[in-house]
Amino acid sequence: MTVDDLNARDDDRAAGTGEKLREHEVRTALLDLLAEVGAVTATEAASRLGYSSGLCSFHLRQLARHGYIEEAPHSGGRARPWRLKQHTPAADGPAEEQFGDLARGLEDESWQRWLTQRGEAPSEWRHDEAFSAVAYLTPDEMSGVADVIRRALAPYRDREQRPLARPDGALPVALITRLFPLLPHTAGDEGQD
């Protein structure tokens, strides 16, 4: 058994317990990396992202199991490169939409996991700051609100890639913002509620 095998086994166990809060972060980082570089092995992903190769391997397999990524062509050997699943745009829609759907699915999955397992979190983490609002904005104002949110988050962005920049007690927190205009209901919407 190799070190990677031991790490994968430990990470498989951890993914079922206290590491659940990191799943969204790790999977999102892997998908972003694949979108950036095309194909990576678990070892390459670990080197680039600062996680263990076992943890990357586990989450790459999970993403493949759910149909988001696939094995990339390779010349054999132990190296197992992965890439984003190749879709036919005519059948599945533009790649940006597919990635957006994937991200929203992972967000929703993480939110549902939080709701069901909140009681298992340390007491200081058993609350959330979820909220929603409707505001009447112009397109420029909507873009301005998005810019304010991005600037507010900027001081914390480097912590994902630089674990040593994280203060003691910091955990990954999902920060999800969706700004979009609410379109009026049409006659075709009747009975869809």
UniProtKB/TrEMBL annotation:
- What CDD domains would the database entry show? HTH_ARSR
From which organism does this entry originate? Streptomyces natalensis ATCC 27448
Pfam families cross-referenced by the UniProt entry: HTH_20 (PF12840)
Domain of life of the organism in this record? Bacteria
Q: Where is this region: Disordered?
A: 1-20
**SUPFAM superfamilies referenced in this protein's UniProt entry, alphabetically:** Winged helix' DNA-binding domain
Q: What is this protein called?
A: ArsR family transcriptional regulator
